[in-house]
Specification:
The chain has 299 residues and is mainly β. It is built from two helices and ten strands, in the order αββαββββββββ. The chain has an eight-stranded antiparallel barrel with strand order 1-3-4-6-7-8-9-10.
Length: 299
């Protein structure tokens, strides 16, 4: 009986010792790990808003449709007008991206923007001619304004995704409503002595013309876009656009006052008249760079 009790007690001690030793040994189970977050994908449709600014150097040339033919027309300054044209831009965008397994992204984007009013640019001139008792002088001014007041583009986007950041190039079609306006003015006066009389001639001319039409051209650019959240992205891009050449025709008339041996046409000695002046045409290449910041919502 004592032997049996001893054996049971010994077995209990051995079992307890084994359990204690096993508790001190390292576990074969791995350390729990958190599941990796799924990689961001640019695939999907999106809509957004954009705002920015456009800059262009609107150089305008002026040519008469025929020989100037009269003092008022021939006095008009026809040197090209040019200057920096700055406009604000505000609009919206819609598009779709598809991301391939190699992280290349192909997309189609369409946007439209309203552009603020542009600036006008002008030239002026003055000259005096003297020959004995004869003298003539003239002043002249020419003002042109050409700008797009809306701009829409439809473009392909080619880019590479660096997780939540997309770097892309873009190219496509651009269209815009282009407004052009031109005005010209001259004053011409001549005086001389004939038959002991002091005689004068004068001609005051003015021209005006305007045009508004939709022009279609092309655009290229580049940009970067970053996903702030799973659905909200922030974009910065810059586009060069070219809408081709715009022509504007101007018509004019001159108020004349004539003395003896008139050098201004259309009126008799000592009379007054109004004559039609030679038309002129302006030509301007409508192009520029527009930079925008965009905020998009990705579905």
């Amino acid at each position: 009986m004592r032997l049996k009790s001893f054996l049971l007690a010994s077995a209990s001690v051995v079992a307890l010792s084994t359990n204690l030793l096993a508790a001190d040994l390292p576990s074969k189970k791995g350390v729990p790990t958190l599941a990796a977050a799924p990689a961001f994908s640019w695939t999907g449709a999106y809509v957004g808003v954009l705002a920015g600014a456009s800059a262009s150097n609107s150089k305008t040339s002026t040519t008469f449709d025929a020989d100037c033919g009269d003092p008022a027309s021939c006095s008009l300054v026809t040197d090209p007008t040019s200057g920096l044209n700055l406009q604000g831009a505000l609009g919206g965008t819609i598009g779709y991206n598809y991301q391939f397994q190699n992280n290349l992204v192909l997309g189609l984007e369409v946007d439209g923007s309203w552009l603020s009013a542009g600036q006008s640019h002008s030239n002026s001139s003055a000259w005096t001619y003297t020959d004995g008792g004869y003298q003539a002088n003239s002043t002249s001014s020419l003002k042109n304004e050409v700008h797009a007041n809306s701009l829409a583009t439809a473009r392909l986007r080619f880019g590479v995704a660096l997780d939540r950041t997309l770097i892309f190039a873009t190219a496509g079609v651009a269209a815009g409503r282009v407004k052009s306006k031109t005005t010209g003015a001259t004053t011409f006066q001549s005086s001389g002595v004939s038959s002991s009389a002091f005689l004068t001639n004068s001609a005051n001319g003015s021209w005006s013309g305007n045009n508004s039409k939709t022009r279609v051209g092309w655009t290229v650019g580049a940009g970067v876009e970053h996903a702030v959240t799973e659905h909200v992205t922030l974009k910065l891009d810059a586009l060069y656009y070219n809408l081709g050449k715009v022509k504007t025709s101007a018509t004019g008339s001159s108020a004349n006052s004539c003395g003896y041996a008139s050098v201004v046409g259309g009126c008799s000695d000592g009379g007054t008249s109004t004559t039609t002046l030679t038309n002129y045409t302006t030509k301007t290449t409508v192009d520029g760079v527009v930079a925008r910041v965009g905020l998009n919502y990705k579905f």
